[in-house]
Amino acid sequence: MLNIVVCVKAVPDPKDSCKISIDPVSKTLNRCDVSMVLNPLDKNAMEAALQLKEQYGAHITVLSMGPPQASPIVKECLALGGDQGFLLSDRAFGGADTYATAFTLASGIKKVGKPDIILCGMASSDGATEWVGPQIATFLDMPVVTMLKEIVNSAGDCWQVKTSLEDGYRLLEVDLPALFTVTRDLNEPRALSFSGIIKARKKEITVWGKEDLGVPEESLGLPGSPTIVSDMTTTDNKREVEIITGSREEMADQLLLKLVDAGAI
Ligand SMILES: Cc1cc2nc3c(=O)[nH]c(=O)nc-3n(C[C@H](O)[C@H](O)[C@H](O)COP(=O)(O)OP(=O)(O)OC[C@H]3O[C@@H](n4cnc5c(N)ncnc54)[C@H](O)[C@@H]3O)c2cc1C
């Protein structure tokens, strides 16, 4: 039976994006009134784990680092078919950059027990650095395959997989245990089922803080982060609209002139 860990991140609900602001002093994001949802690509990671479970049998551990508000997204993954859920949550983890985030997640994975497969999204919808997966693999000293788009052969301990390239794919062979970051091409995430939601009610989420991980406090959160945000600003995304009127031919002529004037064609 495969032992799989899926790393899932709680990200701001896009419909609340207008409520996110930048703290002018700390240069961090204020997300107080923002509801959190499961990072979209982590749904693909979760779906990959569920398909492997259906094919070979697997034990799926869902792992997230975040504030207590991240707990519902772990529950959601348990409702999809995850077997156990862990939330790494402690004030000491706050202000972590990707390095400290990956270190904390890797410490959690070591404590859960080193898995055969770790699945992450390729990127989060808020930070989108794409670094956390490769950094976890580095801390755990295991191979990493990024941008997974197809699992060609998953029988045995040496997998054959395809990863995305801008204009094609790369065919790779990788020995397990390994970490994969997944793209949306990999699968179509399933919807939550009513029976899954009912079953998940009985599944507990274990919350671990800094003492549980047993790692030095200076390697966590802001003190453990080698990068700092020295400035952050918003861009003005205002767009102007001009309605063109007239017959179809007149509108087409006007549009053509405007595009030529703007240097677009
Ligand atoms: C100096 C600095 C300070 C920061 N301070 C803060 C802060 O105060 N508050 C704050 O909220 N953010 C802060 N951040 C952002 C924070 O570092 C990122 O949210 C975090 O490191 C994840 O990076 P990412 O979103 O780019 O992940 P990516 O690498 O784009 O994510 C890829 C995948 O990694 C996994 N993953 C990523 N993060 C998690 C997670 N937390 N739990 C489980 N899986 C995960 C998921 O599978 C995800 O799909 C800070 C960043 C920097 C550089």
What can you tell me about this protein's structure?
By secondary structure, the chain is α/β, with parallel strands linked by helices. The protein has a single domain, classed as HUPs (Rossmann fold, 3-Layer(aba) Sandwich), CATH 3.40.50. It is 29% helix and 26% strand. The chain has helices spanning 40-56, 71-80, 98-112, 132-140, 194-200, 210-213, 248-261, and strands at 2-7, 10-12, 21-22, 29-30, 36-38, 58-65, 84-88, 117-121, 144-153, 158-165, 168-175, 178-182, 205-208. Strand 3 and strand 4 (29-30) form a beta hairpin. Helix 3 (98-112) crosses helix 4 (132-140). Bound molecules: flavin-adenine dinucleotide. Residues 7-9, 28, 39, 41-42, 45, 64-66, 94-98, 101, 105, 120-121, 123-124, 126-133, 225, 227-229 line the site of flavin-adenine dinucleotide.
Show the helix and strand layout.
Blueprint (H helix, E strand, L loop, with lengths): L1 E6 L2 E3 L8 E2 L6 E2 L5 E3 L1 H17 L1 E8 L5 H10 L3 E5 L9 H15 L4 E5 L10 H9 L3 E10 L4 E8 L2 E8 L2 E5 L11 H7 L4 E4 L1 H4 L34 H14 L4
Parallel strand pairs: 1-6, 1-8, 6-7, 7-13, 8-12, 9-12
Antiparallel strand pairs: 2-5, 3-4, 9-10, 10-11
Helix pairs in contact: 2-5, 3-4
Bound molecules: flavin-adenine dinucleotide.
The site of flavin-adenine dinucleotide has 34 residues, from helix 1, strand 6, helix 3, strand 8 and helix 4.
